[in-house]
Design brief:
By secondary structure, the chain is α+β, with helices and mostly antiparallel strands. A 4-stranded mixed β-sheet has the order 2-1-3-4, with helices on one face. Helix 1 packs parallel to helix 2, helix 1 crosses helix 6 and helix 4 runs antiparallel to helix 5. It is globular.
Length: about 210
Amino acid sequence: MLKVISFKICPFFQYVAAMLEAKKVPYQVEYADFNNCLFDVSPNGKAPILITESGAVLFDADAIVAYISRTYPGMESVSSDEELALSQAWALYGSKNYVPQCSAMRSDTEQDFESAFGVFAKSLNKVESVLGQTKYFLGNELSSVDIAWLPLLHRAALVEKYTGVDLFDRWPKIKAWQSQIMTLDIVEKSVSEDFEAVFSNFYLSPKTYLGSKR
């Protein structure tokens, strides 16, 4: 069985886990901590890593998801190389925004938050401009793009739940997309049972700007 090792609130972990859940691939999870920080296992010392059934250690979330997509059936089918390239590009665009969103949520002051969120907002503007009226990013079927953006949409939903701050209030299409994604059971299945508490304690503590809104 596949094994994923990561930190509980790592969005890159949720990306990998959500893809496994969407494809219904059995896997085990080992949660790391600062005493088990992956430096002796992962070449780049970062989470997550995936250990395959043959014992190979895969690292980098985008590479891991690409492996899962190639190895296990399910999810979207594309009719051309162009569609495949676009799907991969928009998925990569999503995972590249994990750090900007995390930086904004972790900001200590309103000024720091506005500066960090401004970086994320540029990407939201681009996504808003291409989203249509379908249920998901590429149409009415769940795709790898939706899976890549799921951690971003999920975290924004938790920010709103606990603070009342709607990170997507200027982007109605993204808001509708978020609402659709949040109905999926893979959202909860792709995180630990205590994820909300761990997330809230880290990103929405009284020390953060968003936490001061609680």
